[in-house]
Amino acid sequence: MYLSVINFFVLTVTAVLGDGVRYPEQNLCPSYYQCHNISLCPGVVQQWNNGYPPTICGWDKDIPSVCCITLSSLVKVPNEDSRSRNTEMRPIRLSSISQTGCGRREYIPPPSDAYIGGFDSLYKWSWLAAIFAGDSSTQLCGATVIDDRHILTAAHCFDGRSLNPQDYSIRIGEVDISKTNTSYEIQEIKLHEDYTPRYHYNDIAIIRLAQPVGKDAVCILEEDILQDGDLLTGLGWGRLSFGGRSTTILQVASGIPVVGNEDCNTKYQRVSNAAVPYGISDDFICAGLEEGGLDACQGDSGGPLVYEFAYEQWALMGIVSFGHKCGEPGFPGVYTRVSSFLPWIKQYIQNQRQSESFRRRPTYVE
């Protein structure tokens, strides 16, 4: 379960929460937004009234600070704190896998005059998937829908397990996985050819669904645009702490800063880690706070690490792979870098589409 998950609110939150909830000191705002007292952001209040809740990024006593666009946040001004926001315009191209309008999330009205701690009660991420053991309620891993037939997850989710599609089922776009909802059958589970269960290199797998699903997909970018300090978001249903209890309610951790691979490699050299005997390669993304507390945990494996590259539009950048315990100070989480495997992903999807097209050709009998 993602640690230090963000508790969400209605605008009467100050009366409900009092001094009981405080947000992390890091800025949780995406690119070109700034964290301001809500009284300085009248447009945010109007958006809330129209059904679009703001993101809390801090507190001043009992008054929330929220992410809002200001003139100063649209100007490219270097920032001493690289975690606070991304300040450079970067060319962004969607890959051929993605369609216009990908990577959206669906607003869910909150309960009246209340808040729900520990999960994002205000949004449904319709491209977020969960892998289950057969038809049971045992959730094994997270995953992400990338088109109408294909889902990405971690190869290590199947360590010591069968690759028989009938042994698993997929559920998509859920918040509370304890509720019985539609399950989707799997046609094939494809692990990366160079993945070895002993290690976490090439820790990626594609799941092909038996039938197309009418679900939204996450965006896949053509190039990796991430820079150190960029803020990412993780989602999952794993444990709340290392070796701790699980929850069936979706957890969302925002504001996870990217950590450079060289720095990340140095950190992991301090511990004996058989998962990456050759170090943290460029095929990984590291992300986490130096002080710890924002991280994936057991059960989040295979789930997405996403980046808000445009307003309310999210791209899949990483897949939960491994870490040192959960949220441990000095040890960022380590994720499979999706862009490193984009040619492999494209080739698999292309092969499947060609194969299906061939099977659909009419047979002529003379």
UniProtKB/TrEMBL annotation:
PROSITE patterns reported for this sequence: TRYPSIN_DOM, TRYPSIN_HIS, TRYPSIN_SER
Transmembrane segments annotated in the record for this chain: none
Signal listed as a keyword: yes
Gene3D superfamilies: Trypsin-like serine proteases (2.40.10.10)
Molecular functions (GO terms): serine-type endopeptidase activity
Signal peptide: 1-18
Keyword Oxidoreductase annotated: no
Keywords: Disulfide bond, Hydrolase, Protease, Serine protease, Signal
InterPro entries assigned: Peptidase_S1_PA, Peptidase_S1_PA_chymotrypsin, Peptidase_S1A, Trypsin_dom, TRYPSIN_HIS, TRYPSIN_SER
One Pfam family named in its UniProt record: Trypsin
Domain Peptidase S1: 115-350
Protein family (similarity comment): Belongs to the peptidase S1 family. CLIP subfamily.
Protein name: Clotting factor B
